[in-house]
Specification:
With 219 residues, this protein is mainly β.
């Protein structure tokens, strides 16, 4: 009898409609929003200080989940060292990456709240001579002073967001960039004009990034 009554009550309460993540109760439609952002960050690339710039474009569902595209560029030649001008073995790395990102947002209506962005994508990186080093030998011969490679990347992170006004937020974030490894060889000529090769660490791009982001949109 108890089992029969329970089934009857459940049948009366359930309309038979499938429940989904992106739909509110009572059959109402989801709340749509979106934002665009740009950010400035600090990271380590190949063991050197690196500057990272980037941005995102996202759709927001029910104020609590963002889905969109992200892209970033970086280089690890922030400090210019004039002693490297005549040293052909010095190099720096520059490149970028981008792809799909998703971002769960906790308590978005609070003035200070947290989100967890995750980026999955692809990128490219190049090894370039540090100070555009040249020689008379190089003027008469074509020498490959750089190498490039592509890689896969996943970057989970956490952002602390501040609601400044309804259409503007500031985010302080930290993330970890993990790649499937790079294959780079930097080539140069020594003082005897013999070609030398430096094999760059395959995990040179794996590192933490700390950034500040500025978001504009309908949240």
């Amino acid at each position: 009898m108890a089992l029969f009554l329970s089934v009857t009550m459940i049948a009366q309460e359930d309309s038979g409609e499938m429940k989904t993540l992106f739909k509110k109760s009572s059959g109402t439609k989801i709340s749509n929003g979106g934002y665009g952002s740009f950010s400035v960050g600090y990271s380590q690339v190949d063991g050197k200080d690196a500057l990272q710039l980037g941005g995102r474009v996202a759709w927001i569902a029910n104020h609590r989940f963002a889905l969109g595209l992200a892209g970033y560029g970086f280089f690890n030649s922030i400090q210019k060292n004039y002693s490297d001008v005549d040293d052909p073995s010095k190099y720096f790395l520059t490149g970028g990456y981008g792809g799909l990102f998703f971002e769960p947002i906790l308590m978005p209506n609070k003035p200070v709240h947290v989100s967890f962005p995750v980026i999955i994508g692809v990128g490219g990186v190049t090894a370039v001579e540090s100070q555009n080093w040249t020689s008379n030998y190089n003027n008469n011969h074509q020498v490959n002073y750089y190498d490039a490679d592509a890689y896969l990347v996943i970057e989970p992170g956490v952002d602390i967001e501040f609601n400044i006004v309804k259409f503007f937020r500031v985010a302080l974030g930290a993330s970890y960039r993990y790649t499937n490894g790079i294959n780079l060889r930097y080539k140069y000529l020594d003082d005897n004009y013999d070609q030398q090769i430096i094999r760059i660490d395959k995990n040179a791009l794996n590192s933490f990034t700390f950034n500040i982001g500025f978001k504009f949109g309908w949240f």
